[in-house]
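Practice problem: predict the structure.
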Amino acid sequence: MNVPFTLVDEALDKLFLKEAEENHLLNLAGHRSVGGMRASIYNAVPLEGVQALVNFMDDFAQRNG
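Answer:
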């Protein structure tokens, strides 16, 4: 499943993607015509991978919210 989401402030998009990549969370940019973010979470993605994304998003929100 693809999980699309946006940040509260578009100005944070590049920082979010940069920091996500630094945390080995890759390919989160949304479709170029739509923007935002998109996490692809398919059956082959282990629960630990999803939890790593959730933890990163929580941390990012606390630091930039």
